[in-house]
Amino acid sequence: MSITEHHSHAEVPVLDNDFVQDPHVRYAQMRADAPAQRVVTVAGMPVWVVTRYAEAKMALADPRFSKDFQRMRGLLDSQVQPGQSRPEFADSIQAHMLNMDPPDHTRLRKLVMKAFTPRRVEALRPRIEEITAELLDDMADRSEVDLLDAFAFPLPIRVICELLGIPEDRRDEFRTWSNTLVGSDPDAAQQAAGAMAAYLIELIEQKRRQPAEDLITGLIEASEDADRLSEQELISMVFVLLVAGHETTVNLIGNGVLALLRNPEQFAAVRADLEQVPAVIEETLRYDGPVNLATLRFTAETVRLGDVEIPEGELVLVSLSSANRDEDKYPRAQEFDPDRSTTGHLAFGHGIHFCVGAPLARLEGQIAMRRLIERFPNLSSAVAADDVQWRFSTLMRGLETLPVRLG
């Protein structure tokens, strides 16, 4: 049965701002209807969205769903509507692991993992604690703050910039570029990508001349059987580590705090026992994880998901948000419950593209949540619980602002 036959009675969903503000209601309807469904972006581009847990997990690891950005270009060009243009991001920021299949992906990931080791991440713990304490100190003399601006944004951007070795005076620019790149304006994203690529070329050249104890230097020096990252690969790898390493943690902190504010009993429980913080972080990842739709894939051949057949050459998005709220995997999935088993959640993906920064995001999230609750145990929302706005990004699941009272 074709998807057209299956949905002939239904309106095709649009990934617009209404969808972003409350995707979970729409995802529940889509899961009930089929494991995958065709939707359109705000630009009118048709894509398939995989919504059920079992099919999402399969699609994330199935090589028939390709991520080869060179081949994907042609598909994207063919989907551009009359009068529109597709943003042309420079090759220098596209040649990264998230846009590649094996063997290229295997080679790049092996090199990156030599520099991005668990030991290097764990060594960041004292510095993350220090930055967290500084930010909380800065908040202490205020009765009300936007928690994103005062805490959730500056913590991960400082950590990832220090890890990579990006000078302090450029970090505000990186935050602006990063926000723009995951936003909804393709022209602005193209400009931000160009500006970031130009700066990274300059920075990498500087690190070659003056090596330092940072991840960019580690990536430059990383080798496997005399293999090294090319200049283009270095630029794109630093680009993806910076954007992913910053954006995911911002949203993990913001979404987790919002979930606690909306669930006072759960907040009281974790306040009484801070050893529950890791469980709160894992449930946040499942319940409202930082990534909504995983980055684009396309079908390298015809693929059948349940009773839905997706033809070869179709663009596909896997909804991590929807899969993690599938009742068949997680009973009472619409409830925020840190006591549940979250084993197998897909917030960091699955398969060969599983997020290399997952240990860092977990570490930052746990430290941030624990120290915030310790310092401000009477934290409360400064606006009505339903009065928050979500950023318009189909990729990320994050808030515009989170106004809170600290006392």
From TrEMBL:
Concerning Pfam families, the annotation shows: p450
Answer yes or no on keyword Oxidoreductase.
yes
Does Cell membrane show up as a keyword for this record?
no
Among the GO molecular function terms of this UniProt record, one is: heme binding
- Domain of life per record: Bacteria
Q: PANTHER family under this entry?
A: CYTOCHROME P450 YJIB-RELATED, P450, PUTATIVE (EUROFUNG)-RELATED
What is the protein name stated in its UniProt record? Cytochrome P450
Q: Which organism is it from?
A: Haloactinomyces albus
